[in-house]
Amino acid sequence: MRNTLILLLFLPVALYAQFMETRSANVRSLQTFVNGEADCAPVIALGSDDEITFVFDELSHIYHRYIYRITHCNSDWTPSEMFPIDYLDGFNDLTIDYWENSENTTQLYTRYELTLPNDDVSLKLSGNYMLEIIDDENDAVVAVYRFAVVERRFFLTAGVSGNTDIDFNKTHQQVSFNVGYSGVRINSPAAEVKPVVYQNRRFDNRIEAIVPTYVTGNELQYVHNRKLIFDAGNEYRRFELTDPYSPGMNVERITFIAPSYHADIYEDKVAVNYRNDRDENGRYFINTLEGYGSSIEADYALVHFNLKAPYRTDGHYYLLGDAWGNSFLDSNILEYDYSTQTYGAVQLLKFGLYNYQYVWIPTYKGEAANVAPAEGAFYNTDNEYLLLVYYRAPGGRYDELLGFLQMNYIIERN
């Protein structure tokens, strides 16, 4: 039976800060590209030719005058003490000037695009940055992006292992890394050096406030640290929606019920085994077989998700992945259907290839989000880890980002 949940029109602010947040029901499909690549982490090198591009859709053909505001942040993404004149070569509150209307789509939308640095503004300091997109008509923030600028002065080496300090090749993965700091004077490593580790670009389970295990010469070693143990989870589920007339991977059927396309994903079941399948660690990529320009010719569809799982009263299932900004919003909660004994949700998504998981969040405060109830946990899961290492000199006013490493834990497949 088709799930008939109504899409929520109000999107509350995410429980955790995320790399991408939409704060308007009409602003969708947020993405970042680093030097044109969609799968790169949102990190660029200071003083290099790197560019980072931010794109989003507004669900109409009505032009909106959007301005963008850049704020320098500390390692925890709170605003730093720096003034715009300190970190910007140029000005804030400039207009996004590049936009295109969709073509031949049932869902009208306008695609907006902004690249940094550009002719009007560039970044002078390393560290974290927040980019706010503001509708100039009502001064409302409609989207937020978080990205980082690195000045590579630390030398990083790192690894991920299924052999952890709490189990051996079972349900966890442990990160270890070394920070070489020759050329940077460090008197108190625990106070001045601030490593942060992200798994699959999620903010809710990131690890920070990490103390080095050993200090040897000009190197900090972070090894056998129980704080650096992550739940391994499972490979992301995937589906492909690129052709309105032919179902793609894991899509059972596509129908048109005016005014929208509807796509039914095959019913998902609670995972009991490891999914030996390549995924993209939560990413999504816009694509369509219609026309020649996927970015403005890809249509939208109401995508129907269903998870066959026992009913629970102690929390909620959420859809997890970049398509939802890895945020836990009311709009991506799954509701239980007693007649089908499934959890379901309907999501408006642009045509493309999507990764997703089901994450359980207990009702009780302080309980962490957990993918294991629906996805299981297996040490051999391919997960992406981002290591960002900050430095604040004694008396310094901001956290410099002096090291960045993107890595994956991958084992040999049969």
Secondary-structure blueprint of this entry?
Layout: E1 20-22, E2 27-34, E3 43-45, E4 52-58, E5 66-73, H1 84-87, E6 88-90, E7 94-95, E8 98-101, E9 110-116, E10 121-123, E11 127-135, E12 140-150, E13 155-161, E14 172-180, H2 189-192, E15 193-199, E16 214-216, E17 219-222, E18 229-231, E19 237-241, E20 251-257, E21 260-265, E22 268-269, E23 284-286, H3 294-297, E24 300-308, E25 315-320, E26 335-337, E27 342-350, E28 352-362, H4 372-375, E29 383-391, E30 400-409
Parallel strand pairs: 3-12, 21-24, 22-24
Antiparallel strand pairs: 1-12, 2-4, 4-9, 5-7, 5-11, 6-10, 8-9, 11-12, 13-14, 14-17, 14-18, 15-29, 16-17, 19-28, 20-21, 23-28, 24-27, 25-28, 26-27, 29-30
Explain what the structure shows.
- This protein is mostly beta strands.
- 4% of the residues lie in helices and 44% in strands.
- The chain has 3 domains: 20-150, Immunoglobulin-like; 155-232 and 380-409, Immunoglobulins (Immunoglobulin-like, Sandwich), CATH 2.60.40.10; 237-375, no CATH class.
- The protein has 4 helices and 30 strands.
- Strands 1, 3, 5, 7, 11 and 12 form a 6-stranded mixed sheet that branches. Strands 20, 21, 22, 24, 26 and 27 form a 6-stranded mixed sheet that branches. Strands 13, 14, 16, 17 and 18 form a 5-stranded antiparallel sheet that branches.
